[in-house]
TrEMBL record:
Entries under PROSITE patterns matching the protein: PROKAR_LIPOPROTEIN
Protein name per Swiss-Prot or TrEMBL: Lipoprotein
Amino acid sequence: MGRMKTNIFSSGSFLTYYAAAFFLISCSTGKELVLKERTDFGVVKFYTQKNLNEKRILVNVDNSTQYRINAKETAKRERANKELTYTLYYGPFKEENDSSKYRKSLSELDSLVLSESDRILDSLNWNSFRRAKEASAFEIEVTYYNGFPRNKKFNFFI
């Protein structure tokens, strides 16, 4: 006997399958705008993102500075220095890493974003996140040693 051929386009299961897949993907990776604020630094937008395994806050400041806050770390990227990632550092620096080439002091913008993020974390009851109150500076890490790729878009952390 021969194989039985079925046309998946004729049945409703094809559309149902793709509709369910689209719904799951869009619900599991969607960002939700929580706060939009005009400041001296530009428009600051705070988003929450809940994936299946992770919750995080994403902050975008006029498409020039981006912050990612999750339970493990707080990171920052700037359009002016796309090849660098700044990670929030808690406590004093060791003497060998005390140079300004390894750290960056918190700016007024950083303080504004981090304090507002702490307030959002408190309102969401995301207690597993470390608050920025104890942070002393950003530790600088080179992400792209050969410069930021030309064909890559400066976008939120993925």
